Amino acid sequence: MSALILSYRSLVLICILLYLRCILRYKFVFEIQARRNYATYNYTKLHNQIFSYKEMSSNIQVTRICQFCRGEFTARTTVTKYCSHRCASMAYKARHRGTKVETSNAETVQTLSAPVIELQTKDFLTVAEVCRLLNVSRWTLARAIKDERLKAVRLGKRIVIKRSDVDRLFN
Ligand SMILES: [Zn+2]
Q1: Separation of 99 CA from ligand 1 center, angstroms?
Q2: Beta bridge mates, 63
Q3: Of 16, 27, 121, 159, which has the most beta carbons under 10 Å away?
């Protein structure tokens, strides 16, 4: 009789153990499944975001005029300036050349005007210097001296003209 009770008790115990194991397993499986679902959900969400972004950027199609070759082209943004890499680099080169030419021209003007500025500070000038200062020919200056409109002093082989006399011409 006691052996029967023992076996009955052990049977109940085994049943309880199996039940617990079953619950634990179910919980475990459920948890794994939930995690997997969550991961899949996140992945899908991310994928959709990337996909929609890609679609968004590639869906914009704007017809624009190339600023270099003046040709029509389809751009993907509203601020694209050039139709191709070639046009972009050609435009850059042209722009660069433009600034170089400007710098060169500025240098030339400065070099040309430098002597004139220098002459304006001198008290006594030669014929050539007065010609350059007034931007007149040697003959015009010679006529002015001959007509005594401009005073000139001969010192040996040189003719010296006073700067203040040149200024007086315009008074
Ligand atoms: Zn172009």
Answers
A1: 21
A2: 74
A3: 159
